[in-house]
Amino acid sequence: MKKLKFATDEGSAFYKELRQKIDIHFLVNKSERTGNKKMLFKIALYFTLDILFYVLMITSTSLASFLVFYLLMGLSILLTAFNISHDAAHGVAVKSKFWNRILFSISFNLQGNNAYVWGKNHNESHHLYTNIEGSDIDVLNNPLFRMTASQPLKWYHKYQQYYAPFLYLLYSINWFLFRETLMLINYSSRTIKIEIPKVEVIKLIVYKLLYIGYMIVLPIYILPFDWSMIILAFVLNHFMVSLLFVGVLGVSHLSDFVHHPKTDSNNNLAMSWPKLQMCTSVDYNPSSTFFNWTLGGFNAHALHHLLPNICHVHYLDILPIFREVAKKHNMTYMEMSYRESLAAHFRFLKIMGTKTHFTPRTYEG
Length: 365
Description:
Elements: E1 5-6, H1 10-28, H2 37-58, H3 63-89, H4 97-109, H5 115-126, H6 160-168, H7 171-183, H8 198-222, H9 227-253, E2 268-269, H10 273-279, E3 283-284, H11 289-295, H12 301-306, H13 315-328, E4 335-336, H14 338-354
Parallel strand pairs: 1-2, 3-4
Helix pairs in contact: 1-10, 1-13, 2-3, 3-4, 3-9, 8-9, 9-14
């Protein structure tokens, strides 16, 4: 991973004042930046729903109820990841560092994915060098998609905005089966390579086998349904999770409004880190109580990237401060409706599939 040097610009003063005003906000309100009673309720709620839907699924007496509870369990686990795993990875779901590690490990590893790999690279790569090829692990060079200007433009890329939704269905199952497995042999479509400690390799294998055990093997052994129906439920669950996951996250960093900055030969970036975060993230419906509750603040992505040490349950309270300080320092804050952000995502796919170079649209606000 290329380590970059940031410049000093208007984003530096913006970020300094933002942090000062956020400090005052929490001081005046005598509250912690970590999760509060609302967050504790959400933790209890989502873990309870995970267990409840699994029990209802594994004790189903009809195929219809089995499929319904299987998908509800998958949805509940995804919402657990949005609302608990993510904040716990940043150490802000609860006050205790120990319990944040436990919450993150349980909620992530039991999905069949490795908590260490995602957590380390999410914090040390994606958050630090957002949308910068060669430094952000989430920047892909997948031959089926053209997402960066450095990728060669192939004839089939002009259709990627049409076939993208079908390939998006495979995102979750690809993550479970191939993404981390290929990382073990240093083969990945990601633009940076990572090394996984031996103990995490063992945990990665064990948790994937455990996931297959309770999601496929145990239902086949216990339930009176044909094994093909269990496999069907497993695949449909991953299809649903994939669409929701990509639909929530993909529109934030893959948009025709969003920048993909490049560094010079000495790995210098001609902007500050705060400005990078503002020009590489789109927020949708950031004032929505519903989205904040269900998506764990993922819809307020710029806010989260700049203030990852604050639990999402506080976002609605600090959003006015964020807007005010951004406006004062002439920092463009890209916020729009979800429909607009989704349209911008597919415009981006179309542009990248038909044009060699990409120039972001100017956000009018």
